[in-house]
Backbone:
């Protein structure tokens, strides 16, 4: 069965500091990996996704993520956090079949940004 | 591109009544849409997969007679919560699969409160 672990429930960083959110997955086939961000009371916005190719993926809002197959990880990073980045971040995994398939989400990491 | 809307954004209803939530893909066609439920400070729980022109596929433990899903067109799926009870109060989020973009795009969510 597929699963996603986000070990950090809550992270606090200072504005301007670097950020890394951890994500580990368990998947039996080639995974299709996603990071989403959710602001309070809002839906999810896709930050970036990875299926194949360059293991360092660039996303929106200055975020990037690195796929490490040997560690089954897909950590999200940002060099300099802005106060507006405070939100809930979800990592998700699904199969890449060329058609829509359901995703498995991690439990999320809540990011707090100190001014 | 890849915008998904939901209506209403918030709804309060009395116990025993039914509520319909709409999910629309605004700038793409989606043969597959997904309905999730999210409890406070928790991750998303997939309720069902909605396929245009066919019956929805429900996840284990989700009552299909209580949560009616209709996907009558390539841009619209509806979730009807029948005979709602206070324990149905939650945040309901839909997503639509965008085949060209290769991923799920989420609506802003609907906050349902049953009194």
Residues:
């Amino acid at each position: 069965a597929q699963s996603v672990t986000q070990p950090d429930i809550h992270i606090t960083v200072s504005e301007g500091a670097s950020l890394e959110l951890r994500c580990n997955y368990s998947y039996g086939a080639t995974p299709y990996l996603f990071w989403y961000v959710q602001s309070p009371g809002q839906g999810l916005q896709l930050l970036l996704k990875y299926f194949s190719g360059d293991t360092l993926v660039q996303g929106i809002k200055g975020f990037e993520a690195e796929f490490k197959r040997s560690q089954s990880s897909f950590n999200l990073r940002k060099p300099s956090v802005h106060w507006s980045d405070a939100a809930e971040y979800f990592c998700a995994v699904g199969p890449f079949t060329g058609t829509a398939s359901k995703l498995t989400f991690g439990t999320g990491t809540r990011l707090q940004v100190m001014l | 591109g890849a915008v998904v809307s939901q209506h209403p954004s918030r709804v309060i209803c009395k116990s025993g009544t039914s509520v319909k939530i709409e999910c629309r893909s605004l700038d793409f066609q989606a043969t597959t849409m997904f309905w999730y439920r999210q409890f406070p400070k928790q991750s998303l729980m997939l309720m069902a997969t909605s396929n245009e022109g066919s019956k929805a596929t429900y996840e284990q433990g989700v009552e299909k007679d209580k949560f009616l899903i209709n996907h009558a067109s390539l841009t619209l799926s509806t979730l009807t919560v029948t005979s709602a009870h206070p324990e149905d109060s939650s945040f309901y989020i839909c997503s639509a699969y965008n085949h060209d973009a290769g991923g799920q795009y989420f609506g802003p969510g609907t906050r349902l409160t049953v009194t």
Residues 21 and 27 of chain A are 19 Å apart (CA to CA). Chain A touches chain B through 20 residues (CB under 8 Å). Chain A has a mean pLDDT of 91. The two ends of chain A are 41 Å apart (CA to CA).
